[in-house]
Automatic annotation (TrEMBL):
Organism of provenance: Micractinium conductrix
Pfam families reported in the protein's UniProt record: Ank (PF00023), Ank_2 (PF12796), GYF_2 (PF14237)
Superkingdom, natural source: Eukaryota
Domain GYF: residue ranges: 5-51
Name of the protein in question: Ankyrin-2-like isoform X8
Region (Disordered): 209-228
Segments of skewed composition (Low complexity): 209-218
Keywords: ANK repeat, Repeat
ANK repeat start and end residues: 328-360, 386-418, 419-451, 493-525
Length: 560
């Protein structure tokens, strides 16, 4: 409890504060479990609920309509509000509109009745109601509108009922809320800056080669617009606005996520100096329009010629913004790994991105992430991508170049995802011999299993797949003192790796296992030997091989 904690509240980095004080803020409802916090010794910023304080969280105060009192922005900021509102894209506008409805609607409609009537007209016209939806038959009131907002469950419903094809009214509501609340105004400025930056990013990449992102595995787009006018304007914006490097949208994504996902190495190289850690520190002490400083500790570059200098976080400063996670817990380096953008990953790592941040997304399934991860199931089941590092992602995709880079930069090999899988297990599931060999040569242990393997070991997986190359590298990496036991380990239903290889019909795998000391006489739970299993499955080659080995063993000599 005595540790000094930093936390993000209302768009500002705050602290330090001790653990007891942070828990008191939670109990008062001033922060919640998703509040991003950081203290010395943490690898990355993380939600409060996921830290050591999470178990001590008391029941939070019930959330009430309306924001905590906040002063109105000064006249200079108010003059900027129309421009900021105009710069918002639709997702940012929808996010701020939702916040305005729940925090400031009562105040807004007190002095702008026409906004109340416009919103209620949309509600009675679009929301399920009695057959007669003529607005003239309703008595518009403040209470009616407030109750109508409460009826809607999420941001999508709010937008469909109040916002769709009604943007002028929506923008007026957002502007009115910003004029009332200095903190809301800061959030508006944050998103407006990010929208302006993204428009310049799109123009910069479009000027060079159209607006499509570089495909995975490509040369990543040549110059990628790094030297055109929009790119220079984007660099100037980053340099002039210290809040922009750490600005995030409603999904938690920053400009660095966009650059990494789009495969823009030359543009990233141009802009990376603006991610200097001092920009984050300045943000923490700026005005109320400052942005969240949720970032992770820098892993440090290796000094290669590929690295772009970004100042490390000094004592008292906040960590590198390149490790800023989105709401799924993914950093820009995760995005680079997902897109197989090797040069982008190299630049990020050289600028201090950590290779060991694990993502988190307990509520959603990753697109296209379908795999069998439960014993006994014949059909694929969806699995959420949880607690994966960039190395997990690269191993699952079979991106050996990305894996090599991450391993060279010190990525941890023994971090497990939500299924208990190490990167080695994912490479083994993909039956990628090069990836498995790379991880084993880097020091990954072949002895560890995951949740899905049950009593099986990695040798069972390779033998079941009938992949002699995989089996060979695993046997070579297995500690000699444990190899004999592993070769004859009985997994599910008493099956040994030799039995699985026999069922598969892989004579090469059977040879490797026999040479490594596999016991051909071992029996499974049904009393079957490897030869029995091969016979039932009509694996004549394996039956003949086992017979030859048995005969040679009886004679005391090697098999022919």
């Amino acid at each position: 409890m005595d540790a000094a904690w930093n936390f993000v509240r209302d768009g500002e980095a705050r602290g330090p504060i001790d653990g007891t004080g942070l828990l008191e803020l939670y109990a008062e409802g001033l922060v919640d479990g998703s509040c991003m916090v950081w203290t010395d010794g943490m690898e990355a910023w993380a939600p409060l609920r996921d830290t050591e304080l999470g178990e001590a969280l008391p029941p939070a105060a019930k959330r009430q309509r309306g924001a905590a009192p906040s002063a109105a922005p000064d006249q200079a900021l108010q003059s900027e509000i129309p421009g900021w509102v105009a710069a918002l894209d639709q997702p940012s506008l929808a996010a701020l509109f939702e916040r305005a409805l729940f925090e400031h609607l009562g105040e807004v409609i007190q002095w702008q009745r026409e906004l109340r009537d416009a919103l209620l007209t949309s509600y009675v016209s679009r929301h399920p109601a009695p057959e007669d939806r003529d607005p003239a038959n309703y008595q518009f009131s403040d209470g009616f509108l407030l109750e109508s907002v409460e009826d809607l469950e999420d941001q999508q419903q709010l937008w469909e009922v109040f916002g769709e094809d009604n943007e002028p009214v929506v923008r007026r509501v957002v502007a009115a809320a910003a004029a009332l609340d200095r903190r809301f105004c800061g959030a508006l400025q944050n998103l407006a800056l990010l929208c302006r930056a993204r428009a310049l990013l799109q123009a910069a990449t479009g000027s060079a080669r159209g607006t499509e992102a570089a495909p995975a595995g490509s040369a990543e787009g040549g110059s990628n617009g790094a030297h055109n006018e929009p790119a220079r304007q984007l660099l100037a914006l980053l340099q002039d606005e210290p809040a922009l490097p750490v600005a995030r949208d409603s999904e938690g994504r920053s400009l660095w996520h966009d650059l990494a996902a789009g495969g823009q190495p030359d543009l990233l190289r141009l802009l990376l100096p603006a991610a200097d850690g001092t920009a984050v520190a300045a943000t923490a002490t700026a005005s109320s329009a400052a942005q969240p400083a949720a970032a992770a500790a820098a892993a440090g570059g290796d000094g290669s010629e590929q690295a772009v200098a970004v100042a490390p976080a000094a004592a008292g400063q906040h960590p590198n913004p390149l490790n800023l996670p989105d709401l799924k817990g993914s950093t820009p380096l995760h995005a680079a790994a997902e897109g197989c953008h090797l040069e982008v990953a190299r630049l990020l790592l050289g600028a201090g991105a950590s290779p060991d941040v694990q993502n988190r997304d307990p509520s959603k399934y990753a697109a296209g992430d379908w795999s069998v991860r439960a014993q006994g199931l014949e059909c694929p089941i969806p699995v959420a991508t949880l607690h994966q590092t960039p190395l997990h992602i690269a191993a699952e995709a079979g991106d050996v170049g990305m894996m090599q880079l991450l391993v060279e930069r010190g990525a941890l090999l023994d971090l497990r995802d939500s299924s208990g899988s190490l990167p080695l297990h994912l490479a083994l599931e993909a039956q990628d011999e090069r990836a498995v060999a790379l991880l084993l040569s880097a020091g990954a242990s072949p002895c560890l299993s995951n949740n899905d393997m049950g009593e099986d070991c990695t040798l069972h997986k390779a033998a079941c797949a009938g992949r002699p190359g995989l089996l060979r590298v695993l046997l070579q990496a297995w500690p000699a003192a444990q190899r004999d036991a592993a070769v004859n380990a009985q997994g599910g239903n008493g099956w040994t790796p030799l039995m699985l290889a026999a069922r598969r019909g892989s004579t090469d795998c059977v040879c490797l296992l026999l040479d490594a000391g596999a016991d051909a006489a071992a029996r499974n739970a049904q009393g079957k030997t490897a030869a029995d299993i091969a016979t039932v499955n009509k694996r004549e080659g394996v039956v003949a091989l086992l017979h030859e080995r048995a005969t040679a063993s009886q004679r005391g000599g090697p098999a022919v």
